[in-house]
């Protein structure tokens, strides 16, 4: 779908600069029978090349200045898609949709089996006595995320990831010991007072041949997952952020939250050091900086401290921890008679 979308976006941009950025694509779903089983496919050929008639049709449609939400249908060389013009720019990989969920109908003819086969070749020359294990981490595959316990529709017959991996293990018997799949899971849950507290953990699945005892491997994998920091995002969200370049070195930082505590007539206030640096570097504006430290122009939190007679008596840095890309600037406030109303 991304390949076909880019072909059409390029044609639209050639007709009117930037026009392709406002297009959204609705791809049709097709069905056919293979060995007596209904197979769902997407009408988006991998090697699609627009015909001259389709190029003219797209150019004419763009030239007509279609209003937002206007659609045009294209059927060309196996492609069936509706183009929709939207009133805001669309992000790549987020500018198309189809009703067909991720599916494969063969335990061997699919990307997962092929990828495992490629990795198995790297283990072929492993010395005798060395365990040959493939670690597979879900990083944006909704299909593979099923192994993390996601809900799915079992009414339709199709190959599932555990079928594919077990088939691979059986085919490579004697050449491979196990496949370990790690899936980042972020579950929505609420505390006793209705507070949103997501549950984050790594789901591990071990696949091995019947003549192998995975007890020691299970203990080893459990030890690995216990050492890993809880996932901040699930695979699909992480992939989306990477595609949007949110993880680039020069992107806006991932800020620690601001907070303050009061004890023995002192206030300890913590704010993100990265947010402060980004503000000084003009990467974020004043409003964004205030938002990151839990303040606003109408109700600045530091002003509240000052109105109560508290002034800064100390400042320091506090490490955010090995799993954070940020630290805290810590400000300590104490009562100051010079800042208080004389009584």
Describe this entry's structure for a reader.
The protein is an alpha+beta fold. It has 9 helices and 13 strands. Helix 1 (2-15) packs across helix 2 (52-63) and helix 3 runs parallel beside helix 4 (161-171). The N and C termini lie far apart (73 Å). The model has no long low-confidence stretch (mean pLDDT 90).
Task: Give a short overview.
The chain is of the alpha+beta class and 343 residues long. Helices cover 27% and strands 26% of the residues. Helix 1 crosses helix 2.
Shape: flat
Query: Radius of gyration, Cα only, in angstroms?
Result: 28 Å
Succession of helices and strands: HEEEHEEEHEHEEHHEEHHHEE
> Given the structure, what is the number of helices?
9
- N-to-C span: 73 Å
User: Structural class of the secondary structure composition?
Assistant: alpha+beta
Overall pLDDT, averaged?
A: 90
Helix content: 25-40%
Give a quick account of the main beta sheet: strands, pairing sense, barrel closure: 4 strands, mixed
- Sheet with most strands: strand arrangement: 4-5-1-6
Question: Which range does the strand content fall in?
Answer: 25-35%
């Amino acid at each position: 779908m991304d390949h076909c979308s880019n072909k059409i976006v390029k044609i639209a941009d050639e007709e009117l600069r930037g026009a392709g950025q406002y297009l959204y694509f609705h791809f049709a779903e097709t069905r056919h029978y293979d060995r007596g089983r209904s197979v769902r496919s997407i009408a988006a050929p991998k090697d699609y090349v627009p015909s001259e008639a389709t190029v003219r049709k797209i150019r004419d449609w763009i030239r007509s200045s279609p209003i937002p939400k206007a659609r045009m249908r294209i059927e060309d060389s196996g492609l069936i898609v509706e183009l929709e013009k939207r009133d805001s720019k669309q992000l790549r990989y987020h500018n198309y949709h189809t009703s067909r969920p991720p599916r494969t109908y063969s335990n061997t003819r699919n990307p997962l089996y092929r990828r495992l086969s490629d990795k198995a070749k790297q283990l072929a020359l492993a010395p005798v006595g060395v365990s040959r294990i493939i670690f597979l981490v879900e990083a944006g595959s909704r299909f593979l995320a099923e192994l993390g316990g996601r809900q799915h529709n079992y009414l339709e017959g199709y190959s599932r990831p555990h079928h594919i991996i077990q088939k691979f293990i059986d085919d490579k018997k004697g050449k491979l010991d196990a496949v370990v799949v790690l899936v980042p899971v972020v579950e929505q849950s609420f505390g006793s007072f209705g507070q949103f507290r997501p549950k984050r953990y790594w789901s591990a699945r071990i696949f091995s041949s019947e003549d192998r005892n995975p007890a020691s491997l299970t203990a080893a994998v459990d030890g690995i997952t216990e050492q890993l920091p809880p996932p901040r995002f699930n695979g699909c969200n992480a992939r989306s952020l990477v595609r949007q370049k949110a993880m680039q070195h020069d992107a806006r930082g991932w800020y620690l939250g601001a907070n303050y505590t009061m004890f023995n007539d002192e206030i300890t206030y913590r704010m993100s050091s990265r947010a402060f640096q980004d503000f000084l570097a003009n990467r974020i504006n004043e409003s964004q900086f205030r938002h990151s430290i839990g303040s606003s122009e109408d109700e600045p939190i530091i002003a509240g401290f000052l109105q109560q007679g508290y002034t800064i008596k100390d400042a320091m840095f506090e490490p955010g921890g090995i799993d954070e890309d940020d630290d805290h600037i810590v400000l300590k406030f104490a009562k100051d008679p010079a800042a208080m109303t004389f009584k």
